[in-house]
Design brief:
By secondary structure, the chain is an alpha/beta fold. It is 36% helix and 23% strand. The protein has helices at 45-61, 82-95, 107-116, 134-137, 151-166, 179-194, 213-218, 235-247, 263-266, 292-305, 315-333, 339-350, 405-410, and strands spanning 5-10, 13-17, 31-39, 65-66, 69-78, 100-102, 124-126, 144-145, 170-176, 198-205, 228-232, 254-256, 280-283, 354-356, 359-363, 369-380, 386-397.
């Protein structure tokens, strides 16, 4: 394996120096230097680690070179906060001289980095897993690309489905308190409210919260007017909440935000597992998608990472892989040419129709992806692992949720209070 990672940072502290082959000391013209920024500490540490696995898988696919130019890779970490993400990005770009940055992972980080990209016109940015709506919607940077759908795109198909197919028309929401969950709730409620659903209450908690007892005590019990609970938490936050909810005898049916039922949560052991089978969710991937492209991706992930990885690649592995593959595919089209502030590379990215593990991905004038979204149900497979089973695939979900740009912009930006039901 031709790994070109130089070193890895967590926040501002150097954590480790990785192996570097003697061939990595090529002249700069013979090297394309990638940076990878992900959360390797805090509540989203496992998602961050799997995101970097996705990048590595893309580099392996291209043999760690483009048109004879060596790929060099430096990874850095944040903790999910915009300030630390910006500091790590600056280190990668202004000290390590990366040409292309893939990242970050978390929503508010992405908003900050998209604005920083405007200061660094000689660097091309591709989003990692960050899925806040504002990143590519509000004053988008010309050199920041998101070949991943955003959090509202992930959840918009689920709201209408929940009302029309399952008959849920009154729910409560438990969510982390920052931009990405706001986007998830925004997309979900856009169609849920339109279909006749209502939201009785919303409970917001800080990222990294360890004690959910006060929130759980306020939640209604099953059998009342509420049909269920929409849980918009991720990483260890989702695991901790579900574990404590099970321990306290919670009995509301659950529908999940995308990250609440990702493999970074489904692979966890303990009492949280008992609440997950049968849960509905939606997002950009489905573990049991039987398409050739997806099954090939899963096999490559398992072959390369074995027990080091998750039972199936997470949405973060998929997103970082897809973004890195987009960059590598565009680089291949232009022979690795990064001259003139990456002019040819960006022209190639602007018109790229990327074949991802879930089908074709295109980007619009905001450099925001249009792609398929899955409605999933959590099931237990023959080996006892929890996986997502596709119930429906919705093709070509665009940034404006099929409403058109003008109608979408009239909805306003996602927040704690926007939208509300009735819409």
């Amino acid at each position: 394996m031709k790994h070109r990672s130089i070193r890895q940072f967590t926040g501002v502290a150097v954590l480790a120096s990785a192996l570097m082959s003697s061939t990595a000391l090529y002249a700069q013209d013979d090297v394309i230097h990638f940076g990878g920024l992900a959360t390797l500490e805090g509540a989203f540490a496992e998602p961050g680690a799997d995101g970097l696995r996705g990048m590595e898988l893309a580099f392996e696919e291209f043999g760690w070179e483009i048109d004879g130019k060596e790929i060099e890779f430096t990874s850095a970490s944040s903790d999910g906060t915009p300030d630390v993400a910006l500091e790590s990005a600056r280190r990668l770009i202004e000290q390590d001289d990366v040409d292309i940055l893939v990242g970050p992972l978390s929503g508010s980080e992405g908003i900050r980095l998209a604005q920083y990209a405007k200061e660094q016109t000689g660097t091309t940015f591709l989003n990692g897993g960050s899925a806040a709506v504002e990143t590519t919607l509000v004053d988008p940077a010309e050199n920041f690309y998101r070949f991943n759908t955003d959090g509202a795109q992930w959840t918009a198909p689920l709201g209408e489905y929940l009302v029309e197919e399952r008959g849920w028309d009154n729910i409560v929401i438990v969510s982390e308190d920052y931009s990405f969950p706001y986007a998830q709730i925004f997309g979900f409620m856009a169609t849920y409210c339109e279909a006749g659903g209502t939201v009785s209450d919303k409970f917001f908690v800080p990222v990294g919260n360890n004690d959910y007892s006060s929130v759980i005590a306020q939640l209604p019990q099953a059998g009342g007017d509420v049909d269920g609970m929409y849980v918009v938490l991720g990483g260890s936050d989702a695991v901790n909440f579900l574990t404590q909810y099970a321990q306290m005898g919670g009995d509301l049916p659950i529908v999940g935000g995308t990250n609440a039922v990702d493999q970074t949560v489904l692979a966890a052991r303990g009492q949280a597992r008992q609440l997950l089978p049968g849960v509905l969710a939606s997002g950009p991937i489905s573990d049991n998608d039987d398409s050739e492209a997806w099954t090939t991706f899963v096999e490559a992930y398992r072959d390369h990472f074995g027990e080091e990885g998750l039972p199936s690649p997470s949405v973060f592995a998929y997103n970082y892989y897809t973004s890195t593959k987009a960059a590598l595919t565009a680089l291949q089209k232009v022979g690795g040419d990064l001259s003139n502030d990456h002019a040819d590379l960006r022209e190639a990215l602007d018109t790229l129709e990327l074949e991802s593990p879930t089908g074709t991905v295109t980007i619009n004038e905001n450099r925001q992806a249009t792609a398929a979204i899955y409605i999933n149900e959590i099931v237990e497979d023959e080996e006892g692992d929890l996986t997502t089973e596709p119930l429906m695939r919705v093709e070509s979900v665009d940034q404006f949720l099929g409403l058109g740009e003008d109608a979408y912009m009239e909805l306003g930006l996602p927040s704690r209070d926007n939208p509300s039901c009735p819409s």
